[in-house]
Amino acid sequence: MEIKTTTTIQATPEKVWKVLTDFENHKKWNPFVKSITGNVQVGNKIKVVLQGMTFKPIVLKFEANNEFRWKGSLGMKGIFDGEHYFILEGQKNGSTLFTHGEIFSGILVRLFKNKLQGETKGGFVAMNESLKAEAEKI
């Protein structure tokens, strides 16, 4: 199952990336991801804190101004796994198409389908709008 959201941000990918990867300031603007800590490099585990949930995914991709992707599990792998991604695509007019999503897998995904499509997707959209507002201020 996949949740995928998009928004157009009136700022360059460089500006959007700067806000997205300024992890120290997420608590000031991000209503969904409260904090990201650790050495954010491909292959490393980081600590991600959401509202009411903390987990330690592995960074799959961290390509400046382009894409940030991690994969984590709740409990054992195969129970409830998620590959979370942020993709930035520069547009001809200087704006950025921001795609924020997650691919869920595991035996418990069906059980949480309604929550994921409602509350979780709502959290993604709220983060997108807050990122848009923050990046457009720069």
What descriptors fit this protein?
alpha+beta, three-stranded antiparallel beta sheet, five-stranded antiparallel beta sheet, 8 strands, 138 residues
Layout of secondary structure:
Elements: E1 2-9, H1 13-20, H2 26-29, E2 33-37, E3 47-50, E4 53-55, E5 58-63, E6 67-73, E7 81-90, E8 96-105, H3 113-137
Antiparallel strand pairs: 1-8, 2-3, 3-4, 5-6, 6-7, 7-8
Give a structural overview:
It is built from three helices and eight strands. By secondary structure, it is of the alpha+beta class. The chain has a five-stranded antiparallel beta sheet, with helices on one face. The protein has a three-stranded antiparallel beta sheet with strand order 2-3-4, with no helix packed on it. The mean pLDDT is 96.
